[in-house]
């Protein structure tokens, strides 16, 4: 719990120091959610969408946390907006997840026309750099192992490039030394949060918990 409280404090400081840092708001939302502070998590994710309006995954997580905090009307508002954005951008994974959440609160997903991906890549709706399209495929896995392979198969090049920029902010603002095993693990946690690789998926891919 002390480690989680420290992470929350770090992300709060990052978000306050740089309100235009979408990664700070996104990571703060994840930390709040992990602490069971779902109303606060939803607000943090919405602040992320204010900075990066195309980040459909953040709308999904905002809606999910509004539901967990009992605020179904706010959840519906966030999810309906997120569904439209995801459909327009071709962000298939967030779109399907948002549709399921909407049905869970008795709301039908709106009818929208999705933009097809020019490359067949699946967009996660995370990187602001995707510029309204599902994106192009990475040339190779960014690193070895099952997580790198999953990123290669599921994350567009534009989203990965966006993470590189955000990852640089993580290193600088948290003063990480990637030669340190602990700091490297912190960096990896931020990467998984940004790319939507939750603990369950990580465990499925690697066979062990993060």
Describe this structure in words.
- By secondary structure, the chain is an all-alpha fold.
- The protein has helices at residues 2-17, 22-34, 38-51, 56-68, 72-89, 92-104, 146-154, 157-174, 181-195, 199-206.
- The longest helix has 18 residues, at 72-89.
- Mean pLDDT is 84; it is low at 114-122 and 127-133.
Structural class: mainly alpha
What's the end-to-end separation, in Å? 16 Å
Largest sheet: none
Large-scale geometry: globular
Q: What is the helix fraction of residues, given as a range?
A: 55-70%
Mean pLDDT: 84
Order of helices and strands: HHHHHHHHHH
The total count of helices amounts to: 10
Task: Please state the CA-atom Rg, rounded to the nearest Å.
Answer: 16 Å
């Amino acid at each position: 719990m002390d480690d989680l409280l420290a992470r929350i404090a770090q992300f709060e400081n990052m978000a306050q120091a740089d309100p235009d840092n979408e990664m700070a708001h996104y990571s703060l939302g994840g930390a709040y959610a992990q602490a069971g502070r779902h109303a606060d998590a939803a607000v943090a994710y919405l602040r992320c969408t204010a900075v990066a309006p195309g980040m459909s995954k953040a709308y999904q997580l905002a809606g999910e946390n509004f539901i967990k905090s009992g605020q179904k009307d706010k959840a519906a508002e966030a999810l309906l907006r997120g569904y439209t954005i995801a459909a327009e951008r071709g962000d298939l994974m967030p779109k399907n997840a948002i549709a399921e959440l909407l049905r869970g609160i008795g709301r039908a997903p709106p009818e929208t026309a999705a933009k097809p991906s020019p490359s067949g890549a699946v967009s996660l709706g995370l990187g602001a750099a995707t510029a309204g399209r599902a994106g192009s495929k990475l040339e190779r896995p960014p690193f070895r192992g099952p997580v790198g392979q999953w990123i290669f198969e599921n994350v567009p090049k534009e989203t990965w490039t966006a993470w590189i920029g955000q990852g640089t902010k993580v290193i600088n603002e948290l003063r990480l030394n990637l030669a340190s095993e602990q700091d490297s693990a912190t960096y990896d946690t931020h990467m998984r949060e940004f790319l939507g690789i939750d603990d369950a998926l990580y465990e499925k891919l690697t066979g062990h918990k993060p």
